[in-house]
Amino acid sequence: MPQANRNPSVAGSIRVSQDGRYFVDAQGQPFFWLGDTAWPLFAQYSREDAEAYLENRARKGFTVIQGVLAWGGGTGFETTAPGPNYAGHVPWLDGRPDRPNAAYFQHVDYLLRFAGERGLILGMLPTWGYYVNDVKTFDVGNARAYGRWLGARYKDQPNLVWINGGDRIPTGCEPVYRALAQGLREGDNGAHLITYHPCGWRSSAQFFHCEDWLDFNMIETWTEWAKVYPAILSDSLLLPTKPVVLGEGAYENGPEYPLGPITPLVVRRQAWWAFMAGGFFTYGQDQMWRMEPGWTSTFDTPGAGHMSQFRAIATSRPWWKRVPDQGLFASGVSSERTLNAAVRSVDSDWAMVYLSSQCHVLLHLDKILTRQVKATWVNPQNGEERDAGTYATGNLLGRTFPEGRTQWFSVPGHWEDALLLLDGMP
């Protein structure tokens, strides 16, 4: 399985596809969202560290980096006003969002250009939610003014999406978040997508799904990593149809999770469950926001490396044509932490099956509407491929009814999890 290629430079803003299920680039080609969270990117990373981090993520095949413009240390560690960046500039003069500090945003300008040249979209949060919900720095007036200023400043910068919210539910503050979104729209005239980032085990859809400024949904599952699949699937069934992104799951090596430890296997499970449910995934590494001593040595942790394989495998087929289909399983679907999941193409000429542990499954090969199907194992850790056989599907036999054909498959020995690729053949 080939490694994910380095991204081309960003030529234009990403948009939502015509059917509402995925993203497209400026040329109308499907855009694969593979995100990472670097919340303090603009505020605390030095320019050198930010460049090294963005270079690293571009090489690994990430396509979106999520960061906060007005950051104060993260949930549970916030300061009463957003802190300065590496050069000592604060985002707002006199602590007022309606008085943005141009010197601070010159560094943001630079990072946007640097990222864009490396094919990275920056998912930018105008503020951490603490400054809306907790200390009430924002009101409707200054939120709209700040949003309008940001939108106008970056209206011609292609490689960004706006992420409203910031680890908070909007309850009681809905007018302020709406005003911020309205300001962004006024400033950039709709040039960029907008979503909303909630807090633990919530989705933007629960609060804003039918509002016209919310272009796609974002979910945070945090420690409830076993709930990724049903959370994504639920939002994908809503009308109007909008793309769904797992914007924050459980962070690799994060110490605070009741359902820990968060191993590379758990990271892969989250990514594949999001994909198999029809959504998109944002990875997280604990030190990218904690920034404890030696944090830059964690750029290459195993889970981050496995995301390269995730993208390579997921995009090896026309992924935008995928349909979640648990009906592929005749037996062995399992549940919760060991859930197995499957997608097939809308044309039923290929399928992918993610097996999240050492297990045996019985699959309906007759779901593939060709005479034969070729099965291939792929190791999601390193891309190793193994032939899993060629089988008759029971279809196209010239009879009124096709034959129901099933086949047992067992995850190869010593693999923690596996992908089974099913490709139709004449």
- Count of individual helical segments: 10
CATH fold field value of the largest domain: TIM Barrel
Number of strands: 21
Main beta-sheet strand count, sense and barrel state: 9 strands, mixed
**Strands of the biggest beta sheet: in what spatial order?**
8-7-6-5-4-12-11-10-9
Number of domains: 2
Named at the architecture level, the CATH assignment of the largest domain is: Alpha-Beta Barrel
Helix content: 10-25%
Which homologous superfamily in CATH is the superfamily of the largest domain? Glycosidases
The percent range for strand residues is: 15-25%
User: What gyration radius follows from the Cα positions, in whole Å?
Assistant: 22 Å
Q: So what's the overall shape?
A: elongated
The chain-level structural class is alpha/beta
Give the termini separation. Answer: 23 Å
Give unreliable regions as ranges: none
CATH class type of the largest domain: Alpha Beta
Mean pLDDT equals 96
